[in-house]
Amino acid sequence: MNKLDNLVAQAKDILRTNDLGGYTVPTKGLYPFQWNWDAGVTALGWLYVDELRAWTEFEKLFEGQWENGMVPHIVFHQESDDYFPGPDQWKVEGNPPSTSISQPPLLATMVRIIYEQSKDKELAQTKLDALMPKLIRYHEWWYRERDPENTGLVSSYHPWESGMDNSPAWDDVLQRVPQVTRPYQRRDLNHVDSKQRPLKEQYDRYIYLVDFFRENDFDYQKIYQNCPFHTQDISLNAVLQRGTLDLIHLNKVASVAVDMSSLEASAAKAEEVFPALWDAERHLFLNRDHDLAKTIPVSTSGGFMPLYSYSATPEQAALMAAEIKEWLVLGPSGLASTSPLESTFDAKRYWRGPSWLHINWMIADGLKHYGHDDVAEQLRQVSRAIIEQSGYFEYFDPITGEGCGGKDFSWTAAIALHWLL
Ligand code: 9YW
Description:
about 425 residues; mainly alpha; Glycosyltransferase; three-stranded antiparallel sheet; 16 helices; binds (alpha-D-glucopyranosyloxy)acetic acid; glycosidase; 6hp_glycosidase-like_sf; 6-hairpin_glycosidase_sf
């Protein structure tokens, strides 16, 4: 088998191994449940293995959708002692049980790609038609409950909700969250080197927030008013924006078209406020601290995500493309999650430096949209080089390309099948 065939075979094997029957765990051991944005990316990988299975990934995730439309960040289909905090901590009633927060809503965009690229068009139409009302309810939930004052930016209440858990962008906001005093036992450190994971002090605050949501009866108004962690995450807002645009498009090809004026108005509103998050010196967009009503001055890869949502001007896109090239000089093995020039940069610690393949892909997709095909291709080449060098790890040291975190990771394998091989 040549090198390419071998990489393809390995990636497909990873998806099959991590398949627990209709849903895919991110990796065995460390993450034993179904995660929201992982499911979207992973479905894309299944497209190259088994189209029906790609659709099932979404259907299984939507089994956890709440009545208000929210799609949780984790759906606990099966019990496992490998992960903390599990369903006994979140205490959400429901079958299947879930967490009480969400994650960047990639699903609509992934559904669109799979719908357009799949070969079985009849199957795709049936599956799309069934998923549309669920996707619409999910997006409506974001705008209704997470932007109740119609500012154009949705709120996040937990670093886990951003999908970029220990990003230094959250450090100051997290300092305002009390540390939980009850004892608890982490499980992640049984699987991964502690140097690559968030610190205990951060976990103490993460768990405080889990308790806070429950103590506030998961009531969106109480949480909006009082949550000590309250951010407007640029990356999540960009993912939502792109997803809404894709959903508006999908409504035109669905068998039954519905009134999308409310989602159209939300997307237009977001378009109006994104410019306020642009930083003219850093050449990227910034996250926002809701309670202090100001942007958070930390350069992260999330700040380039408005490329993916088509929310940048051509001038901003050109400045971001040049900035990305500079980051790639300092960290040549994929786009660093935190700028290598930030004092908080840490090459191996999760979202404080490492490069993540699905982020590289989304940003490359945005760069292509703006005509920066050369930088998009550079991102593709460096991403390809790291999997050849290190295999399908959860994330990679952007300086050395060393694989970090969990091994045989579903979304890394999926993005490789879709983008790199
Ligand atoms: C955790 C599953 C998840 C991802 C997140 C990533 C990590 C889980 O793993 O969070 O417990 O720390 O940060 O983006 O969805 O792959």
